[in-house]
Inverse folding.
């Protein structure tokens, strides 16, 4: 269930980016997650920089579905539609294909509330959703980095296992993940012409995914950790950020 937060500026804030940027294809909003008693317990506002949004959208939806707003003219022009065979992650598949035709913008303000409950698709179809998400991410990387994806074909599979499954991951999986991420980081840095600070921020985002994969692994924790040593500093930074976010969310009102 989604609740719109009353605001005199909400409509203006949401439409302004479209008026200013003709290349803007779609945008998302910041949002509060609420419980069954309508209590806010988490604030989510995605990255504001275009290259950060681009990177995040390779691996997961950069927007919460009910907050999506996009130009219907471009949808019609490129024949973009949901694919039934991508259920229950068909929205992420469509967002990924949409991203090839225009810019993405995330409004840095929470304008909606989103209720999580036991009947959310992400709860009832979790395993199926993760399997499709892994498939979509592989497609994204192959589309955006065809030469790299071909060269790192085996690493691509290992990385998707690390990111999206709860299987018994091996140290080899984490080794594959770090190799692929380092190659991806190098490619994005060059194509987006990122400065040193932006490169570090992007590596921080990669570290977040690797850390989540490591936390979900059920064995070979130490061996997996050793394979992640090239990301050791950003992973440590991410741990502190997680703690900080949890402390901040504990006081969300």
């Amino acid at each position: 269930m989604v609740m719109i937060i009353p605001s005199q500026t909400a409509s203006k804030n949401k439409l302004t980016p479209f008026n200013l940027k003709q290349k803007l294809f779609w945008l998302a909003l910041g949002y509060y997650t609420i419980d069954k008693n309508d209590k806010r317990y988490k604030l989510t506002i995605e990255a504001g920089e275009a290259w950060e949004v681009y990177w995040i959208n390779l691996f997961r939806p950069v927007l919460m579905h009910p907050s999506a707003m996009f130009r219907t003219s471009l949808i019609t022009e490129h024949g973009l539609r949901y694919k039934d065979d991508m259920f229950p992650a068909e929205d992420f598949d469509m967002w990924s294909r949409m991203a090839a035709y225009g810019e993405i913008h995330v409004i840095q303000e929470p304008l909606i509330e989103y209720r999580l409950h036991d009947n959310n698709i992400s709860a009832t179809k979790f395993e199926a959703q993760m399997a499709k998400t892994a498939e979509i991410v592989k497609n994204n990387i192959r589309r955006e980095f065809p030469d790299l994806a071909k060269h790192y074909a085996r690493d691509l599979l290992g990385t998707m296992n690390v990111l999206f499954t709860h299987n018994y991951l091996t140290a080899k999986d984490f080794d594959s993940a770090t190799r692929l991420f380092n190659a991806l980081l190098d490619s994005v840095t060059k194509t987006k012409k990122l400065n040193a600070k932006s490169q570090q921020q992007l590596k921080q985002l990669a570290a977040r995914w690797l850390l989540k994969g490591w936390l979900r692994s059920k064995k070979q924790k130490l061996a997996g950790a050793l394979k992640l040593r090239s990301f050791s500093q950003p992973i440590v930074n991410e741990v502190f950020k997680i703690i900080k976010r949890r402390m901040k969310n504990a006081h969300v009102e």
